[in-house]
Amino acid sequence: MNRLNWALGLPFLLLANPALAAIEGAEKQALNLPAIGMFLAIVAVTLGITYWASTRTRTAADFYTAGGGITGLQNGLAIAGDYMSAATLLGLSSMVFAKGFDGFIYTIGFFVGWPVILFLMAERLRNLGKYTFADIASYRLDQTKIRSFAAIGSLTVCCFYLIVQMVGAGQLIQLLFGLDYTYAVIIVGALMMIYVTFGGMLATTWVQIIKACLLLCGGTVLVFLAFSQFGFSFETMASRAVDVHKDGIKIMGPGTLLADPVSAVSLSVGLMFGTAGLPHILMRFFTVADAKAARKSVFYATGFIGFFFMVVCILGLAAITIVGTDPQFFDAGKVGGKLVGGNNMAVMHLAKALGGNMMLGFLSAVAFATILAVVAGLVLAGASAISHDLFANVIMKGRASERAEVRASKMASMGLGVIAVTLSILFEKQNLVFLVGLTFGVAASANFPILFLSMFWKGLTTRGALLGGLSGLVSAVTLVVLGPAVWKTVLGNAQALFPYDQPALFSMPAAFLVAFVVSKLDNSVRAGHEQAAFDDQFVRGQTGLGAEGAASH
Hints:
globular
């Protein structure tokens, strides 16, 4: 069971955090001057964008959603930028490199789940929401209670995910650039605070667009160079990979990834529905002008992400033949604790083999840029929950001025940045697998059920939403604590009380069930008004009409 949990947890970990698993005892690499030069160029460009964005960020709408002026294509690239992370480039290619067909199936499974959720939700998200997903969850329910709970859920997800990303950033930069971990984390924290505080959503969006374009271009060039080594024949590439790989022909068929179906399904549920509950992903749909642009965003993002995932799989297969003959990879693969440290850098070794230090430096700089974009989006989502949901609507009851709200958001951004840097330094040597599971578990079990039910089920009441969301939150946290990642690895107990690392398969249904039962049993007068208000909400969600238009309609 330990091996299965490790095997199933590895890709999840890599997707959330490219170098986190690692890299115990990793040595700093020699300074890569091309990487440093390209890194400085990317930072200079993004800081210039931030200055430009700061001159156009005047209102709360500008700060939170770029004034709704992002086009469908731009937003599609930005969504793809959130998904096509350094973790995708390093983690998924490493899965194919190490597991062959299993890695490919995992990549496809990770990809096909999210368009279903986003196509289902994108239009209503845009029509119902203003700045955060709490706007939707609380639209017809008790504003104070639901906003408070939604804000807490958002902050929980953002903070946990931010720590994971920051620790991964420090360790990745330590490997690729030769910088000390502490300095690397401080640099990431300072840059993300500048992007968010001064440029808001407009700067964050364009940073994500730039890094998405760089990843697409860099990956495409690397695939072209890789294919050229095999006469542009996929069959030749695959046959040589079989000859070289330690598992031989077995890499072309199913392996051990799905040996434990419960763990596999729970992992998939967490990834699929957790993505639809991530605040920084949901905020992207408020940046476009209307529901049509939101649908276009998903269409473009699907194309970009699908293409890039295929690129990543090809790179993983090519790396087996081109750099896989180095014994450090497959010898290391025999010892579970060392597999990530060796295989996680396979695509970087491939880049150096095919394009020298220039290509390696380019991919290293782009990997750094991807982390900057992700953490900036997380900080903005967390700051929005504090300033818009808690400060403006719960504490001030809607009486706060736009200027005060934006000022509160900027202060929250700086506070979250300082907290993230401090915690990532403290957590440098810790095993953070449990935070990865907890992040997606909470998103899938506390955020997604309430968001989904508030949009699509007339019977949801405030009591049902609160108790359902709390059930999902508490069960997700409890199962992670009782699972192998915390109970055995962190606390040092001999046997975990809950056998699986990922809680979503159990905690998400619990949230839906409690929300349904409690709402059905709620016969209060307020519950009747909340259920009646669904019709107005439904009209607005379908048509994009404002509150007044929905009522008259």
